[in-house]
Specification:
The chain is built from 19 helices and 36 strands. With 779 residues, it is of the alpha+beta class. It folds into six domains: 65 residues, Phenylalanyl-tRNA Synthetase, Chain B, domain 1, CATH 3.30.56; 111 residues, OB fold (Dihydrolipoamide Acetyltransferase, E2P); 191 residues, Phenylalanyl-tRNA Synthetase, Chain B, domain 3 (3-Layer(bba) Sandwich); 66 residues, Phenylalanyl-tRNA Synthetase, Chain B, domain 1, CATH 3.30.56; 195 residues, 2-Layer Sandwich (BirA Bifunctional Protein, domain 2); 87 residues, Ferrodoxin-fold anticodon-binding domain (Alpha-Beta Plaits, 2-Layer Sandwich). The strands form nine sheets. Strands 24-27-28-32-31-30-29 form a seven-stranded mixed sheet, with helices on both faces. The longest helix is centred in the C-terminal third of the chain and has 19 residues. The radius of gyration is 41 Å and the shape is elongated.
């Protein structure tokens, strides 16, 4: 953002404030100064007026001019194409030393005496903005012939370029920057000068606005009968200073008004919206286009502009005469940015302002623009306006004086806080003695909570003006929950590495299209990322699995025959609720090539992978389960339980997915990190008596799950039963719809060595329960 002292001075009185102090203030309030450029026109460069202009008798490209310098009339030979009688010009008189080192002396040019030089902008140290000499007018104030140009504030100026953060769209105008200075210097911001310049019949006679649905935009239109508009000198000079230009005078005025006020201004030719030259009524159609943007069109559906994005060349004003329509618009920056992210379309130079946040005071911006046009033309304005307004919900933030002091760490006087907020445009009239009830202005879309309010106060008070406090050195208990969470994560990461897995770390973003194709539910559309890093990282990841698959595939392509990876990281629900997961992948060979396997190791299998997971997280229990996504093999997946609590899922990767990622046999597991145990290890008493083992071969129907058998045994087991587990499963045609399942039982007592009678009673209790509840007996 580029500003100049003289331009800022039109909105706030900077009298007595040096450029150095101004730059220092900008830096202190968070508007970082990128560069400063001083414009100092040399002494003996004065204003003059060309009285006569005749061709040089001996040079076609030279003119001999009589120039009034106030105290005398001088003859000056000038080669500029635009020199002519009647012009007010800038003249370097005898003895003037120009920025390039040239010293003006009396000379003869092709035999004609010349006493001075009529100057172009570059010759006196200004930015070039015209082809030839400067044509000065009253836009720079009252001109006294012979007065030194350096005495005029517009020529003795300072340019300051400010580096703005993306959230400070309110400072993308001269008035917006002046508003921050108003709070910093406690000087009032000058109001808009609104003139009653409606001197023609009502605008409703020549313009109507048609719209078929409510859109989140505000529009306001005025109409003018444009007559001999002449772009003023000051506008030309300032547009050159901000390094901007437009093809037509009207477009230049729109840009100047936008940069001054922050209101997005556009000018349309009235004839673009009228069917023919004789039709006096123009109809502006506002509708939503195919990409969801607000579009301005004519009766013939010819697009004039996309509101906040771009204006078509066909609708622009190219002539300085005729009826024109001036549009002021406002669209919330979050809405236009999101739409542009969803549908990339061509944008114009003003899109940057609308996407960062423009000025919503449309009426004041329009009045500023129309006053400027009428001042430098013979134009007439149609009375009234055509407007479309959407009510905006007022944003209210409540914060107490005590909270402000606690966040800052110092007590700020209540009157100082109130004055700062008022100067920044915040409304505090509903506040009480101890609490601030703050209404946030619409142009400060970046203010959302009490911390933002405190930040505004701090940057205006100045961080250097807040008294420092000594450190209070007290020893507190640092073993808080976050410490134990950190230790738990480190514990499982170390266990994963010890078990042969390598840690993999990925972005918390993933590709929405890929996730949806595998059946994962991604972030809701209204909560989706507005500006993703790349298209392949366009959503918050709901799982760690796809990232590990990509990493394993890349390792396989790099020549690794066995890939074992794990990751501990955050995943997000469709409503952006964050949780922590731990995931594993094991692909390819289950061991290295050795002499024992003759250089041909077997591929990883289900049992091997489960054992690896158990090595990391401890005892696990698997239950029958069907995943909700399509990454898994339909017949090789299980639900993982740790200490009786569901922890996650474990499965073999579907053959089609393995083929898509160019992987061999691959197994994966994803666990809720909170479900993994991390408790204080407590010693348990163990029996000193010998354990006994009993095997039972049961005849079990194929329809009965092991889970059902396990539940019955655990419910009816005696206290002597330590554990049990399957050791064999057998089936043949003679068993029909049944299978033979062999279970091994481990029995032990803390009080004695078990006798045969004790073991028999324990087994009979289990067998009776199995028969009664599941119809299972001995084979």
């Amino acid at each position: 953002m580029i500003v100049t002292r003289s331009w800022l001075n039109e909105w706030i009185d900077l009298d007595g404030i040096s450029t150095e102090e101004l730059a220092k203030t900008f830096n202190s309030i968070g508007l970082e100064v990128d560069r400063i450029e001083e414009f100092n026109v040399p002494k003996k460069v004065v204003f003059g007026k060309v009285l006569e202009c005749e061709k040089h008798p001996d040079a076609d490209k030279l003119n001999v001019c009589k120039v009034d310098l106030g105290t005398a009339i001088r003859q000056i030979v000038c080669g500029a194409k635009n020199v002519r009688a009647g012009l007010t010009v800038v003249v370097a008189t005898i003895g003037a030393e120009l920025p390039g080192g040239m010293v003006i002396k009396p000379v003869q040019l092709r035999g004609v005496d010349s006493e001075g030089m009529i100057c172009s902008p570059g010759e006196i140290g200004l930015h070039s903005f015209c082809d030839g000499i400067m044509e000065v007018d009253t836009s720079v104030g009252e001109i006294t012939l012979g007065a030194e140009v350096c005495e005029n504030p517009y020529f003795n100026d300072a340019l300051i370029e400010i580096e703005l953060t993306a959230n400070r769209g309110d400072c993308l105008s001269i008035r917006g920057v002046a508003r921050d200075l108003s709070a910093a210097f406690d000087r009032p911001l000058k109001d808009y000068s609104v003139s009653d310049n409606d001197d023609m019949r009502g605008i409703g006679r020549i313009l109507s606005l048609v719209h078929d649905k409510e859109l989140d935009i505000n529009l306001r239109y005025k109409a003018l009968e444009l007559d001999t508009l002449s772009l003023p000198f000051l506008v030309k000079m300032r547009l050159a200073q901000i390094e901007e230009s437009r093809e037509s005078d009207v477009e230049s005025i729109m840009l100047y008004a936008t940069h001054s006020t922050g209101v997005i201004m556009r000018a349309y030719s009235h004839s673009f919206f009228a069917n023919d030259d004789e039709q006096k009524m123009a109809r502006v159609h506002l509708s939503e286009d195919e990409e969801g943007f607000a579009s301005i069109t004519s009766d013939e559906a010819q697009i004039a502009s996309t509101v906040g994005v771009i204006q078509k060349e066909e609708s622009k004003v190219t002539d300085n005469n005729g009826v024109i329509l001036i549009e002021a618009s406002y669209i919330p920056p979050d809405i236009i940015s999101k739409k542009m992210d969803e549908n990339k379309v061509e944008s114009g130079p003003l899109f940057y302002r609308t996407s960062r946040g423009s000025e919503p005071e449309l009426e004041a911006g329009l009045s500023f623009c129309i006053d400027l046009i009428e001042k430098y033309s013979n134009s007439s304005t149609f009375s009234g306006t055509i407007e479309l307004s959407n009510s905006v919900k007022e944003k209210i933030i409540t914060v107490s004086k005590q909270e402000i002091d606690e966040i800052i760490g110092a007590k700020i006087d209540k009157a100082v806080i109130t004055k700062i907020l008022k100067n920044l445009g915040f409304n505090t009239t509903k506040s009480t003695v101890d609490n601030y009830v703050i209404s946030v202005p619409q142009y400060r879309h970046d203010i959302v909570n009490k911390q933002d309010i405190v930040e505004e106060i701090v940057r205006m008070v100045g961080i250097d003006n807040i008294p420092a406090k000594p450190f209070v050195l007290t020893e507190d208990n640092r073993l808080e929950d976050n410490y134990f969470e950190y230790k738990k994560r480190m514990h499982y990461r170390m266990r994963g590495a010890q078990s042969g897995f390598f840690e993999s770390v990925h972005f918390v973003f993933d590709e929405k299209k890929v996730l949806n194709s595998y059946g994962f539910e991604t972030t809701k559309a209204e909560l989706e990322l507005l500006n993703p890093i790349v298209q392949t990282l366009d959503t918050l990841r709901p799982t760690l699995l796809t990232g590990l698959l990509k990493a394993a595939s890349q390792n396989k392509k790099n020549g690794y025959s066995s890939v074992k990876l794990f990751e501990v990281g955050s995943v997000f629900s469709p409503t952006r609720e964050e949780s922590l997961k731990m995931a594993f992948i094991f692909s390819g060979d289950k061991e290295a090539e050795t002499l024992l396997n003759a250089g041909r190791p077997a591929k990883v299998d289900f049992g091997t992978f489960v054992q690896k997971i158990a090595d990391v997280i401890g005892d696990v229990e698997l239950r029958q389960y069907e995943t909700t996504h399509s990454l898994s093999h339909p017949y090789q997946c299980a639900e993982v339980y740790v200490a009786g609590k569901r922890a996650g899922e474990l499965f073999k990767v579907h053959p089609e997915v393995q083929e898509a990622y160019d992987l061999e046999d691959t197994f994966m597991c994803e666990l809720d990190f909170d479900a993994l145990t991390y408790e204080l290890k407590v010693a348990r008493k163990t029996s000193k008596f010998q354990a006994s083992f009993r095997d039972l071969s049961l005849l079990v129907s194929k329809d009965i799950t092991f889970e059902a058998i396990k539940t019955v045994i655990n419910t009816n087991a005696t206290k002597e039963l330590v554990r049990f587990y399957p050791v064999d499963k057998y089936s043949d045609e003679s068993l029909g719809d049944n299978i033979s399942l062999s279970l091994r039982f481990v029995l032990q007592s803390d009080e004695k060595t078990l006798e045969e009678e004790d073991i028999t009673n324990a087994m009979e209790s289990i067998l009776n329960a199995l028969k009664d509840e599941l119809g299972i007996g001995l084979r």
